[in-house]
Amino acid sequence: MGARKHNSAEAMKAARKEQYFAKANNVPTSPRKMRLVADMVRGMEVNRALGALHFSTREASRALEKLLKSAIANWEVKTGKKAEDETLYVTKIMVDGGMSIKRMLPAPQGRAYRIRKRSNHVTIFVDTKNTNAEK
Prior knowledge:
Elements: H1 3-17, E1 21-27, H2 31-41, H3 46-54, H4 60-79, E2 88-97, E3 101-106, E4 112-117, E5 120-128, H5 129-134
Antiparallel strand pairs: 1-5, 2-5, 3-4
């Protein structure tokens, strides 16, 4: 690896150490459905977001609730503080398309229809408002 690329990679690693996030790959929900739930909690305070996700009837909210709890735990480990003492916010949520499983469904007259079972990758970032203002 060249020096320029190496320095860039090291800078990205250092920046990641100051961010508090959790990531889930290949969540078996279509990205479109997951984005509806992600838009619901984006920018929300963490405890309100957990309540909204817990009482939501959408299937994608279960996976996002679990991921948000993981991001909160990551924040607690990296900062050494308790989440109850601080006011945490969901700063950013990214939902990207994952791999698709392709299946065939029998159709009339010897034909077949293709079914794509989609999945997604979700990344959720949490932080306090004070930290964002200082940066």
